[in-house]
Fold:
Amino acid sequence: MSYIARPKVSHPALARNELGLTMRDYEGGMSTLCAGCGHDSITGALIQAVFELSIPPHRMGKLSGIGCSSKTPAYFAASSHGFNSVHGRMPSVSTGAAAVNGRLQYIGISGDGDSLSIGVGQFVHAMRRNLNMLYLIEDNGVYGLTKGQFSASADTGSTAKRGEVNEQQAIDPCLLAIASGCGFVARGFSGDRTQLVPLLKAGLSHRGFAMIDVISPCVTFNDHEGSTKSYRFTRENAYPIGHTDFIPPEVEIKAELGVGEAQQVQLHGGGSILLRKLDHEYDASDRSAALAYLSRRQGNGEVATGLLFVEEGGADMHELARLGETPLADLPYERLCPGSGALADLQDRLR
Amino acid sequence: MSYIARPKVSHPALARNELGLTMRDYEGGMSTLCAGCGHDSITGALIQAVFELSIPPHRMGKLSGIGCSSKTPAYFAASSHGFNSVHGRMPSVSTGAAAVNGRLQYIGISGDGDSLSIGVGQFVHAMRRNLNMLYLIEDNGVYGLTKGQFSASADTGSTAKRGEVNEQQAIDPCLLAIASGCGFVARGFSGDRTQLVPLLKAGLSHRGFAMIDVISPCVTFNDHEGSTKSYRFTRENAYPIGHTDFIPPEVEIKAELGVGEAQQVQLHGGGSILLRKLDHEYDASDRSAALAYLSRRQGNGEVATGLLFVEEGGADMHELARLGETPLADLPYERLCPGSGALADLQDRLR
Amino acid sequence: MPADNDFTIRIANVNGTGSASANSLLMKTLFRMGIPVAGKNYFPSNIQGLPTWYEVRASHRGYLARSGSVDIAVAMNAETYQRDLRELTSGGYLLYDSTWPRREVLRREDVHILGVPLARMCNENFDNARARILMKNIAYVGVLAALLELDLDIIRELLRQTFARKKPLLEANQIAIGLGYDYAREHLHCPLPFTARSMDGPGSQIIIDGNTAAALGCVYAGATFGAWYPITPSTSLMDAFRSFCSRFRTAEDETRNYCVIQAEDELAAIGMVLGAGWNGARAFTPTSGPGISLMSEFLGYGYYAEIPAVLFDVQRVGPSTGMPTRTQQGDILSCAYASHGDTRHVLLFPSTPRECFEMAATAFDLAERLQTPVIVLSDLDLGMNDWMSEELTWDDEYRPDRGKVLRAEQLEDMEAFYRYLDVDGDGVPYRTLPGEHPTGAFFTRGSGHNMHGGYTENAGEYQEVLDRLRRKWDHAATIVPRPEIRTAPGAQAGMITLGTGHSACREALDTLAGRGVALDYMKINAFPFGAEVETFLKDHKRIYVVEQNRDAQLRTLLINEAGGRAEQLVEVLHYNGMPIPATSIVSAVEADMLRDRAA
Amino acid sequence: MPADNDFTIRIANVNGTGSASANSLLMKTLFRMGIPVAGKNYFPSNIQGLPTWYEVRASHRGYLARSGSVDIAVAMNAETYQRDLRELTSGGYLLYDSTWPRREVLRREDVHILGVPLARMCNENFDNARARILMKNIAYVGVLAALLELDLDIIRELLRQTFARKKPLLEANQIAIGLGYDYAREHLHCPLPFTARSMDGPGSQIIIDGNTAAALGCVYAGATFGAWYPITPSTSLMDAFRSFCSRFRTAEDETRNYCVIQAEDELAAIGMVLGAGWNGARAFTPTSGPGISLMSEFLGYGYYAEIPAVLFDVQRVGPSTGMPTRTQQGDILSCAYASHGDTRHVLLFPSTPRECFEMAATAFDLAERLQTPVIVLSDLDLGMNDWMSEELTWDDEYRPDRGKVLRAEQLEDMEAFYRYLDVDGDGVPYRTLPGEHPTGAFFTRGSGHNMHGGYTENAGEYQEVLDRLRRKWDHAATIVPRPEIRTAPGAQAGMITLGTGHSACREALDTLAGRGVALDYMKINAFPFGAEVETFLKDHKRIYVVEQNRDAQLRTLLINEAGGRAEQLVEVLHYNGMPIPATSIVSAVEADMLRDRAA
Ligand SMILES: Cc1ncc(C[n+]2csc(CCOP(=O)(O)OP(=O)(O)O)c2C)c(N)n1
Ligand SMILES: Cc1ncc(C[n+]2csc(CCOP(=O)(O)OP(=O)(O)O)c2C)c(N)n1
Ligand code: SF4
Ligand code: SF4
Ligand SMILES: [Mg+2]
Ligand SMILES: [Mg+2]
Structure:
């Protein structure tokens, strides 16, 4: 549990990032999730990503809804502020938080129940507003915390642990995100850290809303035969459309890096993404094509993974709201109050 | 107002439908909308469609949310039951209603604010469940009833009456519908009854969720220069992808009906749709292609109209729930109660 | 009985025909003549074509409540002729557009029917179709000017100010006034037995609506973030905030020192406000009843996780959608206890625009001092109508009271920080802001937590925090605005109200005093109530509780939370959507006293 | 002090290690021995790895409340050893797995520490890893069997019944029982000074949880539609409904005579229920506190548009997310007045599974008779725990009372139908169902409507309907379930409770009576309260109001709505998430009496 104290003595041999911090400094409370739960692997990948990007822990804001997945913020970055909100409503809390302080790195963590059922309205509108945050859906096709009901991402025909067949259509968060105007859409798998860490780093570096759907098997309720969100099914049916590398600002890209077709996307916040295509059909910068592609793969029962769509340079919420450099929360009162004189002038016209 | 009595003497010269009813029998209370409001034209088209399909008025259920658009159910079919629910939540009410009595024809009427902001979650999930209803969005890009705020369908760059520019991205209900698994997606224009009436009839005859986004200018708050939901803009930028004819069950389709490429879609409830393509690129039966096409047209600032996507034969909510012929609401109590004997047996195992 | 500077005019019109500027011209003219006035707009929940009324009450005694009677009806809507005629006081005057004479319809012996061919005159004098419609409205102001001897110079000056930048319109308006005025002087008995006479009532007062005043309060309190979902009658609050901010808060480089987000619904609006409050900004959301219902879950979160937030509930008629354009005080109970579990919220009850302004600022201070949502309960009557109000004043020495926030410097020196400790014994813990300092990090959650901020499912640890919240509540009762109490010599009973009950009560108290009934009076300004409210309840055997809802919600709270006794508290209720008039209070009190005497 | 057939065993375990079947085996064994038992599960809000406890109380007097003390602790979770030891009564027994001896940790002079090498024995006897974990649990039942002289035949028979179709498991279980039993007989002092002795307590009673019983009530009442969004502790109600329906309501052709929809959230769930209710089906939704908050807006709609609906609020600990796996009665106020405006809802308060069953059926009748949402307020303790309960019985003559519904035949003969007329003077109008007949058509709306069902913004017309709704409310008070009242000869004071307060109160009353304090008792079954409740309040100068929340919510309602006086009603509160034990009531009453005497 999060309040259990852990020794914070840093091991001298641990690698240090630019801030002189070790991976330990990005850890959080002890997980209370089931042993083997995909969500914990994502936490691990996330710790690695923020460590490698040298984000100061206390300059991150961790937000979530309710669910096993939404407990994740308690399990990393103990020295970040966390906000475990109500079920499905983390996007709105993030919106308000981001609006008044654009200088923090916001990381939202949600589940497929949290984001696609009760929270789908807020999810869609947060993407539409393009607030600057990394938004993860730890997607297991079920409601873990309430013991295994199908979620809206459960595929048609997949079965519950006790055999019940899901007849409903699935909502694919990636398709929905692209259709809702999200500028960074990716899919990862909790079991594939090599793919996931660069996606997380790219998402963290993207300016605007970066949505990553991470397939994250629920070992307790949805890892059986018949599940399409199990470790096995995902391993067998994941269809990576390409490799993503995140290139820090100072690193120059050498031509030989690229195997296959490579595409470089300059990130607004510095650094860039190097996309190396595996599927030559695919163009991650073409919204219409991405929509068609995903819908086709989905039709075939395949799970396209990787960076599915990216569009850099769209104005984020901050820019659209024409906010200045200083966060609203930090503006001195003197710049906010028009004063008694202005009040008197104003009232001249009210007589 | 809806309770103002009107003379019900039917004029002998009025045309009668199969039920012997005239158009008058499908009328409702007097509209209280602004003179010229697009919503009233849609009411007119709807009256014509249900009249021509000879739907018994009292066998329809009219449901809506809140907004100028959502007042529409009061303005037609005075002898149907109506349910003017709360803002954005009509889909759930319709779901419950349809589940317990599948024999009525449900017509849901909503606005762009009602369906795409507060109600977008319920809207998406109703489509996912594929309940059998016609769902209209009377889409004017603004909140009419609260006096002209931008809605989520307002296009980026379009202006409000007083000049304010909308910077937000728009949600296209048609794109969203296709991405959410809706099997019948069309767009009409309140100013084009010729196109609209057949779409309405086709939608009414489709088994499952039929979503029609009807561009319906708000003459009071969004019909100015700079609006992309004005009569003028819509006339100039509508891009009809084809003509739709609804063919009643008994009519045989003659080859000469078709100009351009024609495609016939057999409807489950009887009758069929004849699609005559104008854009040869377009295939209304291919989900992936439709998504890509719409997203492309949207990118060009064009408003694709017509029957955008249709997929007949998907199981509707009724079928998925394995409900029988007799509506649940009509099942006699005797078939519902297991009786005292069963109760006693059951309790044997609880000791 | 109308008298000089003591009469009510009600103008019946059709929604969407542009009568607003004529009505405000009339009101402003009386106001500039130094006569206390109140203007009330009764409009339908649609945009065009339905009946709408505007009522102007002139009252030399300064009574601003609805008078409950109509002395002059300006009947511009043929659809409501019958009703307008019926609701006129005996001896009153009905003015109508006699372009189409209606001798049949407008028949009532005890009133005066005055016909003026407004449409005909306007058609003859204006070419443009829109002007012909609009100028009819200005013309009836001209007629009233003649009947009531309004100051024509003031009228003309007001028009000049209004249309300073629209010369052609100015000219048309001036002509229209003349048309009405001249016709009346020529064809009607002018002046009426009662007229408007210049006096010096309003002094330095202003005319403003409560929503505008509340918005100004938010600006002056230093609120930087607002999120809302449009809903009548709260929308104009955010409109005003935006327009003040674009004027006062836009930097030279065009960047904005404020942010307003139109949320996708009310659940999102309150979520945004909590996010912003958690992050250290002063944030608020205006809404109305349905919005409060939708915000319930998050309100409980704000209470339990202790996040400052300010809400304005501009109440309209419920239950459900009800009558969105009518007034009521029906959300008192639901706001006090919004959300499941043991939750309770601090409420403020402004009764005038000036209080809207001041209490808005107070609300932000309280929200931050108490670290909890604070709801300012206004209503449609206060929020959207034009009120004559004390001038707004601002103390430039004011600085926001951010309450107990530990900043980086302080955290730097601390070993550890625990979010929910009751360090000072007042039930209010310390908080920190995200991004400030690693030592300040804590985890905000709506699930069970202990006083250190850690997750808990332990019975004792859980209860400890709940008990402290209750102590914080008791502390709140000592710092919220105190009631306004006026004692009357020899009073045996009392009267209590809140919000817009105030103006009607003041008038009713005068009337009752005039009839020999003296009552002590308390206007409640906040919930929790505090010691003075309890004392007032203790000190009076019989108290009339005046409020605008069916279920006596204030009375309920007084019984629950301030030791009020059911036998002692007499319900005086009004809940048909119209603002409560003093007369209904007077008769309720008198009826009760009669009953009491009989018993 | 424990005694024969009067002791409490608490088993500490780790979530997800499969102790449920062992615990239920223990409870069922006592039950079949004819000893009244109560089982309570204290589980964490996670799925695996956190501490969890199961408590079995044997009580020959039939007391089913939490005893509040532990006589035997089975400490299977090393993480909670300290706590389990601390909470044991003096003289009690702590049983632990001595495979890893813990003489250091488990040190307390006044209790007996019993070590049994459960893991070692199981490792030696079972190959399979899962079995090694599971069988430890069965083995401690074996130990308890020896210590308490449980009837081994009954245990073995229960195992046979449970594993009738899983032979290998049966065998393992039988072995495990033997391992524990034999070890205990050999190494421990058996039996303990208090044991289990066969008696004839339960008679025809059954063991069932409240949610299952409520689900059965829905089936028997003829509910055909359920919509819900999963939330602890209400989920099992819908699970049970589905499973009963799939058994009793599946037609030969596999079609279903019921429909259950997992909604996208609680707003949608209640919307679906209202749609189904409007359309003539009996429809319900189970939820918990956060769900009620989210349903607020629609609840007001249901009240005002008058649509039957049944809700089950299986209460958990709030405010906010609170402790989802702990029990509380914290939603009384928010349910009573859910939604903005003047709304109020009919509530039912079951206190036993049998009442869950019966009140579920009653709720549907009331919802249809009154045309309004009815909320059945259960709680986690009642809903999810195993209770010994009176047998459920059903009168086959029962037919649903659909209230005032006009069917096609009746409409055929009518000129016109008006939805909101008070034809019978009881405040309940007639309704019609969609699709039935053209004459029956009406427009359902949450916006202002008059008694004919037409839209209105007219003050008088609006108020007319609101006043009728209030009359309907008064009528409701006459038809809801009456309170259960038990008078005690010579009683001077009273005690009131509702729901799960009942079992604790019954026990407390006996204890108090034993100490010479006689109290009259009233268990409230419904809100609005009705005449008997008012009389009880009038007849007692001092009344203890026992409830499980911080803010004395029932007491508040009694004051508001039944004429209760603050001075008269003494709060007895319990709100730490554990079910209230009788002892805490007894001490609260005694303390108050002492204070009273001192004053
Ligand atoms: C308003 C509300 N309704 C229901 C719940 C109960 N609930 C808790 S978590 C959860 C589902 C979580 O599913 P998901 O987001 O997929 O997370 P997972 O546990 O699968 O990681 C639900 C329904 C709640 N906490 N709040
Ligand atoms: C819960 C709630 N919030 C806000 C409102 C106020 N409101 C009424 S209609 C409306 C918007 C309607 O817009 P739209 O659906 O586009 O309909 P239109 O009037 O444009 O036809 C709003 C916000 C409400 N009735 N209920
Ligand atoms: S129940 Fe599933 S999602 Fe939840 S912690 Fe366990 S494995 Fe993870
Ligand atoms: S405001 Fe707009 S949407 Fe509403 S009735 Fe008028 S024109 Fe139609
Ligand atoms: Mg999940
Ligand atoms: Mg609209």
